[in-house]
């Protein structure tokens, strides 16, 4: 049939036969690409990792080459590779929306998150030695101290923080800019400050000697009061309840308290003197006492006497020691004597003329005469056994009942009586001095052998 065709048709068919073959091959290749594209798209949707562009191209090329080797009807050209490259790029760009929909937490972190309120390392600290001994060693080292305290001519190297932790004085007075402080000697002694600072550091001081406990405790109380160390102040006062603080020790403490101007402490110590009173009157310390201290002592309820006459004679002994200088204290001392407790015979004796200058001045004083007259009324009511609480306010409205003393008895005294029969008692100043002389001969501890009597009202 080919032979029957004209030459022009034969030429046209010959020209179109290669073109038809190429079109048929292109259609087959397009169909193959479409099937490969669908397969790759399904793989991409099941996998979370896409191959890189270079790997994808190599994979596609090797696939195509293999297929060309198996089938001689399919050939790979440059146009087909470029078309496949474009399709892969289009596939990756269209699959980005699907990647964002993967069910993964974008805030997930491989590091442990620490909350805002617990920003500390949760773990054990490395082991180390206790710091307390090291701090104490530094505190006890005077070379490390930066604060100087002068007490008189003595210098103490201290830590200001330690002083301020215990003392209100240094807490309010001391300044970190001024690293020096001067303390007054009339309130603080060097031994007392040394003792207090060692107490602050926790250092035990050496025990005081037997002749210095009185001095040290008063110095310490004075310094503690000035420095306002409240905790140590209570401890010092508690020491006064110790059995070692006897009546004679209490008087020694009182003398030291006068030096440091602690009136409350002096009054407390004087109130403890009872049986020691007459031994004290016989001593030179009594004659050297200040007039105000003597008044406080004679006004105490606890002074131990066998008669109120002994209180009057004690005041007379102190006044007569240096009469011209002590005469201004006469009336004040006489107010400390409880004239209502004096025997009527002695009251009558005071109203008579006296042979000594001191007694004459006392008995002739107008205030003393008034006290003697009131005492006669009190003594007469008591002598006749009347009720003092009912009769005395009626006769003397401004007069108060005198409180009894602590009556004592010394069997070696010539005028002491075992029963408190004050109405019959009477002895002279000479007899009183003789008894004081006997007390001096018996020694300062004889007071411990005296007995305390019950008075007529039954109180001790």
Notes on the structure:
The chain has helices at 7-46, 53-70, 78-94, 96-99, 132-140, 160-166, 168-173, 190-201, 213-227, 230-239, 247-259, 263-270, 277-281, 284-287, 291-299, 308-321, 323-326, 330-336, 344-351, 357-364, 366-383, 388-395, 429-442, and strands at 147-151, 154-158, 180-183, 304-305, 406-409, 451-452. The chain has 460 residues and is mainly alpha-helical. It has a domain at 274-349 and 402-460. The strands form 2 sheets. The protein has a 3-stranded mixed sheet. A 3-stranded mixed sheet has the order 4-5-6. Helix 19 runs antiparallel to helix 21 (366-383). The longest helix has 40 residues, at 7-46. The model is unreliable at 43-53, 59-84 and 455-460 (pLDDT under 50).
Classification by helices and strands? mainly alpha
The low-pLDDT segments are 43-53, 59-84, 455-460
Please give the count of helices: 23
Please give the number of β-strands. Answer: 6
Proportion of helical residues? 55-70%
Multimerization state: single chain
From the alpha carbons, calculate the radius of gyration and give it in angstroms: 59 Å
The run of helices and strands is HHHHHEEHHEHHHHHHHHEHHHHHHHEHE
Secondary structure elements and pairings:
Layout: H1 7-46, H2 53-70, H3 78-94, H4 96-99, H5 132-140, E1 147-151, E2 154-158, H6 160-166, H7 168-173, E3 180-183, H8 190-201, H9 213-227, H10 230-239, H11 247-259, H12 263-270, H13 277-281, H14 284-287, H15 291-299, E4 304-305, H16 308-321, H17 323-326, H18 330-336, H19 344-351, H20 357-364, H21 366-383, H22 388-395, E5 406-409, H23 429-442, E6 451-452
Parallel strand pairs: 1-3, 4-5
Antiparallel strand pairs: 1-2, 5-6
Helix pairs in contact: 1-3, 2-3, 8-9, 9-10, 9-11, 11-12, 19-21, 21-22
């Amino acid at each position: 049939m080919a032979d029957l065709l004209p030459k022009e048709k034969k030429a046209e068919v010959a020209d179109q036969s290669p073109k038809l073959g190429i079109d048929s091959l292109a259609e087959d290749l397009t169909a193959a690409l479409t099937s490969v594209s669908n397969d790759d798209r399904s793989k991409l949707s099941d996998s979370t990792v896409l191959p890189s562009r270079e790997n994808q191209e190599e994979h596609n090329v090797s696939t195509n080459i293999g297929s060309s080797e198996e089938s001689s009807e399919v050939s790979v050209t440059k146009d087909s590779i470029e078309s496949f490259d474009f399709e892969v790029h289009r596939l990756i760009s269209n699959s980005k929306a699907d990647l964002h929909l993967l069910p993964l937490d974008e805030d997930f972190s491989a590091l442990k998150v620490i909350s805002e309120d617990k920003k500390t390392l949760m773990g054990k600290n490395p082991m180390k030695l206790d710091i307390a001994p090291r701090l104490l060693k530094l505190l006890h080292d005077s070379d490390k101290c930066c604060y100087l305290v002068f007490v008189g001519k003595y210098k103490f190297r201290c830590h200001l923080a330690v002083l301020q932790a215990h003392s209100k004085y240094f807490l309010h007075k001391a300044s970190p800019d001024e690293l020096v402080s001067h303390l007054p000697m009339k309130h603080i002694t060097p031994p007392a400050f040394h003792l207090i600072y060692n107490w602050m550091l926790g250092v035990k001081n050496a025990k005081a000697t037997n002749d210095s406990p009185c001095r040290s405790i008063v110095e310490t109380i004075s310094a503690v009061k000035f420095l306002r160390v409240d905790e140590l102040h209570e401890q010092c006062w508690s020491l006064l309840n110790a059995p070692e603080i006897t009546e004679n020790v209490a008087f020694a403490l009182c003398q030291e308290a006068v030096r440091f101007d602690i009136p409350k402490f002096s009054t407390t110590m004087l109130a403890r003197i009872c049986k020691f009173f007459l031994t004290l009157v016989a001593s030179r310390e009594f004659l050297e006492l200040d007039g105000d201290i003597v008044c406080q002592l004679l006004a105490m309820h606890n002074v131990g006497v066998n008669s109120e006459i002994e209180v009057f004679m004690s005041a007379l002994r102190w006044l007569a020691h240096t009469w011209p200088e002590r005469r201004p204290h006469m009336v004040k001392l006489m107010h400390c004597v409880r004239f209502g407790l004096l025997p009527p015979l002695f009251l009558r004796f005071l109203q008579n003329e006296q042979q000594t200058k001191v007694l004459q001045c006392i008995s002739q004083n107008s205030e003393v005469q008034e006290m003697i007259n009131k005492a006669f009324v009190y003594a007469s009511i008591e002598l006749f056994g009347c009720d003092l609480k009912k009769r005395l306010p009626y006769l003397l409205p401004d007069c108060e009942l005198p409180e009894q003393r602590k009556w004592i008895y010394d069997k070696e005294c010539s005028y002491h009586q075992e029963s408190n029969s004050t109405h019959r008692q009477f002895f002279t100043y000479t007899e009183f001095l003789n008894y004081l002389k006997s007390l001096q001969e018996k020694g300062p501890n004889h007071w411990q052998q005296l007995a305390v009597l019950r008075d007529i009202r039954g109180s001790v």
